[in-house]
Design brief:
Strand 18 and strand 19 form a beta hairpin. The N and C termini lie far apart (50 Å). With 499 residues, the protein is an alpha/beta fold. The strands form six sheets. A nine-stranded mixed sheet has the order 2-1-10-9-11-12-13-14-15. It is 31% helix and 25% strand. It folds into two domains: 396 residues, 3-Layer(aba) Sandwich (Rossmann fold); 96 residues, GMP Synthetase, Chain A, domain 3 (2-Layer Sandwich). The structure holds malonyl-coenzyme A and adenosine monophosphate (AMP). The site of malonyl-coenzyme A has 23 residues, from helix 8 and strand 13.
């Protein structure tokens, strides 16, 4: 069944109830939400979108953005969200690779992105709202709400979410209607989703955490969503007393704790604080319990599979662990070569289940490389206790997670190595109080290198700001092992206090 149909069914008897509450932009009922979705789907169909077509979206978070996501599902098309921080230089690749039928962007970037999209044969570029002239929202005003809900099978694609790779360019993870529904249904069950819940939503909706995990749990109940444009500490503090569930990356909890206004009384009404996308430090878990009396529920997931493991709702939530595999997810640990890992040992986590994606868009070889005998290789290093509880202890993949956003060092090294005066580079993640990890670049230079400030300025033109190194430091040579591979572990240790 089309995932959207399930949301529509859930809303059935609750047409007048609040679906979304935007503190600065009013309230929308389920009736208003689904009327808008029907109109939006008709505008997309009118623009030539057919089932299976990709609709790529780079817009600031808003209610209209949620409507657009649901309209793409309704039309049987494939939603392809892109981080709003991506530069034009980064976006061209996604357009070429996914060959979307339609691009939806913000008015401020329309002039920049339309030619890029045209160059990639994107048939139509629309703005979501604003500037009056032919925006999607304006077109919706003249459309009817009766768009068909296109029949979809479990394996039909609902979304492609790009995730970077350790080698080569980003890969589009293909997620089906069946993948998304299976995961949402399980999460709703294990997190005890209930009719009085109110979700405080402060995550971006261009990644699986904010888009699927958070929105699907709420829309399938249905529960009201307090939709904030971003994590703004004042807005979050003001909204907490009306909410029951918050989903966030660890930085959310670090920032709440850093604010003296955040206290026990303020979250007395909260049922559940969930953390994921990056490791939650045991110190943060302990400080949070100390301040609020609540134990954060940490869970673990990734783009290719949605959620994989979770601490229990009832039962012990143990700091530094991600809990148990979800009921319908199988896990096993293997050495990088595929050998079985002894009980209690550390290995690469491999998974199997209805949540596991359909492969990488148009990359069958890379898909095959990331599966072993039908198990998906997560690239995360884990250990598992005798009772099944999982701890993520590291990453086999060269990846930095900063404030819950993934950054692939290879991509930054590639840009650095193109710059005049730089012979070679190594990019590492070092501990950072707010973001968990932050990016540091080490460069071997010639005498004519332009200096740190100029290098950073150049990178800013090429890369989304969150990927740009906080500092670029010169080094005489990169430490290498006998195979010639840069020993990043040595660099990470040596530069641990760099920030
Ligand atoms: C913003 N900046 C970051 C950053 N976010 N730098 C490093 N890491 C980040 N995560 C930079 C900006 O480029 C800018 O730089 C400066 O910091 C301030 O920007 P901002 O927009 O004001 O930042 P802020 O709103 O404070 O955002 C921080 C944040 C946000 C942590 C609230 O990044 C966030 O919401 N992260 C969540 C990401 C997420 O949803 N991840 C889930 C992925 S799914 P400058 O230089 O321009 O000033 C996944 C699977 C799973 O991983 O398991 O869930
Ligand atoms: P993404 O590619 O953005 O989907 O990021 C997924 C990666 O985030 C996983 O492979 C893990 O490395 C990491 N991750 C997600 N949740 C957790 C967690 N609770 N603890 C540690 N790492 C996590």
């Amino acid at each position: 069944m089309n995932l959207y149909q399930r949301m529509l069914d859930a809303a059935g008897p609750h047409q007048d109830a609040v679906a979304f509450h935007m503190p600065d932009a009013g309230v929308r009922s389920h009736a208003e939400l689904h009327d808008a979705v029907g109109r939006c789907a008709n505008v997309l169909i009118e623009a030539g979108v057919e089932p299976g077509d990709r609709v790529t979206v780079q817009v600031e978070k808003s209610f209209e953005n949620v409507v657009l996501y649901l309209a793409v599902l309704r039309a049987g098309a494939v939603y392809m969200p892109l981080n709003t921080a991506y530069t034009g230089a980064e976006l061209g690749y996604f357009f070429d690779d996914a060959e979307p039928r339609v691009l939806v962007c913000d008015p401020a970037r329309h002039a920049e992105l339309e030619p890029l999209a045209k160059g990639a044969n994107v048939a139509c570029t629309l703005t979501l709202a604003g500037d009056g002239s032919g925006s999607l929202t304006e077109l919706m005003g003249g459309a009817t709400a009766d768009a068909p809900i296109v029949q979809r099978a479990n394996a039909d694609l609902a979304a492609i979410v790009y995730t970077s790779g350790t080698t080569g360019r980003s890969k589009g993870a293909m997620l089906s209607h069946g993948n998304l529904f299976a995961n949402a249904a399980t999460l709703r069950k294990i997190w005890g989703w209930e009719s009085g819940d109110v979700l405080l939503h402060a995550l971006p909706i261009y990644h699986v955490h904010g888009l699927f995990v958070a929105l699907h749990c709420a829309l399938l109940e249905p529960s009201p969503v307090l939709l904030l444009p971003r994590f703004d500490i004042d807005a979050v503090l003001a909204s907490l007393p009306q909410a029951t569930v918050l989903m966030g990356v660890p930085t959310f909890y670090v920032r709440l704790l850093a604010d003296s206004r955040f206290d026990r009384a303020q979250c007395a009404h909260m049922r559940l604080f969930i953390s994921g996308s990056a490791p939650l430090l045991p110190e943060t878990f302990a400080a949070f319990e100390n301040r609020t009396g609540k134990r954060i529920l940490e869970r673990y997931g990734m783009t290719e599979a949605g959620m994989i493991a979770s601490n229990p709702l009832k039962g012990e939530r143990v700091a530094g662990t991600v809990g148990y595999p979800l009921p319908d997810v199988d896990v096993r640990l293997r050495s990088p070569d595929g050998d079985t890992v002894e009980s209690g040992g550390i290995g690469v986590l491999e998974i199997r289940g209805p949540n596991v994606f359909q492969g990488y868009w148009r990359q069958p070889e890379r898909t095959a490389e990331e599966f072993r005998d039908g198990w998906f290789i997560t690239g995360d290093l884990a250990s598992q206790a005798a009772d099944g509880r999982i701890s993520i202890v590291g990453r086999h993949k060269d990846l930095i997670i900063s404030g819950g956003l993934n950054i692939y060092p290879r991509e930054i090294e590639f840009e650095l190595d193109q710059l005049p005066g730089i012979e070679e580079s190594a990019v590492i993640g070092v501990p950072h109080a707010d973001f968990g990890e932050a990016v540091v670049a080490l460069v071997v230079t010639r005498d004519d290198w332009p200096g740190e400030a100029a290098v950073i300025a150049k990178l800013r033109h090429r890369l989304a700001a969150f990927k740009v190194p906080r500092t670029v430091m010169r080094i005489d040579q990169l430490p290498r092992n006998a195979m010639g591979k840069v020993q990043k572990a040595i660099l990470r240790k040596h530069y641990a206090d760099a920030l």
